[in-house]
Amino acid sequence: MTETSTANFASDNVAGALPEVVAAVTEAASVGAMPYGSDPWTERVSVRLREVFECNLWAFPVATGTAANALALSAICPPFGTVLCHPMSHANTDECGAPEFYTGGAKLQLVGGPDGRIDPAALDQAIVTARPHGVHNMPPAAITITQESEAGTVYSADHVDAIASIAKAHGLALHMDGARFANALAALDVTAAEATWRRGIDVLSFGATKGGAMAAEAVIFFRKELAAAFGERRKRGGHLVSKMRFVSAQLDGYLADDAWLRAARAANAGAARLATELAGIKGAALVRPPEANIVFVQLPLPVLDALEVDGFGFYRVGGDGTIRLVVPWSVTDVDVDALVSAIRGHVSTTA
């Protein structure tokens, strides 16, 4: 992951690009092509995605995850509606009001649940009680779930089924924020179809940047009517890239020969290795077993200070010594072992 003795586990965004992605972009840069998505790479990505998801779908490449989430939600929620989401979701914590902006004023309604996942019973109750004064209250219109969650957990098939059943019963659209969709898919060991539209997902923000692209995502609609005006929404939102082939080429390389899933499996395996090693250190307490590529662990505060001096990258979560370690696709055993060795050494000297 790095050429030095320290590694950055702050985010999977710190990693470079997959060789397959770089090769695809290099190819796209070597020739001319029509702009605004009228190019072979954009068409090829749509074909690949239909093969991956085993269905007809409507895919729109965009440059950022924020754009993917916010524009997707704008297509399924009116300005006077609410989007139900977990407090830890990207939509609530990491989009700087973009969902509210692009929907034209929709409200985010927070629904809790353990380990970063929406609790179905709490969701149903929130919907049922959302409009005590009828037209004076904003009606629920959509639900968004984050797969893999910001807590490093993954929604099981049964969990998604339960949420999808509630969405259908109340006539709400269901969106999945898949910034780390590949990691979740690798953890679940199911097909993309089984993880999405066959479970009742209507719209997917298909993430690639965290998984090894440079800057590429896609909004995927599994229902044609929801995509009817999305081309205009994307253009108005500033994400109809003129040289779209460079965004699409990244997705093309990412998907080619299952490069995206191999990368996700490597990241997940690195996180599992890291968690196993941390569990064996006295003074280190795993917050929860990682289910994909994010590890949360609590360490003594002096150890965190020492690790930062060493140059290791991570995010502190609160003030109790809990940190988030995100394992990118490019991680090596050397990277993991170096961090574990440093933690073990600092714990022993500060005990």
Q: How would you describe this structure to a colleague?
A:
By secondary structure, this protein is an alpha/beta fold. The protein folds into 2 domains: 240 residues, 3-Layer(aba) Sandwich (Aspartate Aminotransferase, domain 2), CATH 3.40.640; 87 residues, Aspartate Aminotransferase, domain 1. 42% of the residues lie in helices and 14% in strands. The protein has a 7-stranded mixed beta sheet, with helices on both faces. The chain has a 4-stranded antiparallel beta sheet with strand order 8-9-11-10, covered by helices on one side. The longest helix has 21 residues.
Structural key phrases:
7-stranded mixed beta sheet; 351 residues; 14 helices; alpha/beta; 4-stranded antiparallel beta sheet; Aspartate Aminotransferase, domain 2
Describe the secondary-structure layout.
Blueprint lengths: L18 H11 L10 H14 L4 E5 L2 H12 L5 E4 L4 H4 L4 H6 L3 E4 L9 H9 L11 E7 L10 H14 L2 E6 L2 H8 L3 H4 L7 E5 L9 E5 L8 H7 L8 H11 L3 H21 L5 E2 L7 E5 L2 H10 L4 E2 L5 E5 L6 H18 L1
Parallel strand pairs: 2-3, 2-4, 4-5, 5-6
Antiparallel strand pairs: 1-7, 6-7, 8-9, 9-11, 10-11
Count of DSSP H/I helices: 14
Spans where pLDDT lies below 50 across 5 or more residues: none
Strand content: 5-15%
Mean pLDDT: 95
Q: Name the structural class.
A: alpha/beta
In this structure, how is the largest beta sheet organized?
7 strands, mixed
CATH architecture assignment of the largest domain: 3-Layer(aba) Sandwich
What count of structural domains?
Answer: 2
CATH topology of the largest domain: Aspartate Aminotransferase, domain 2
Fourth-tier CATH superfamily name of the largest domain: Type I PLP-dependent aspartate aminotransferase-like (Major domain)
Cα-atom Rg, whole angstroms?
A: 21 Å
User: Alpha-carbon distance between the termini?
Assistant: 30 Å
Number of strands: 11
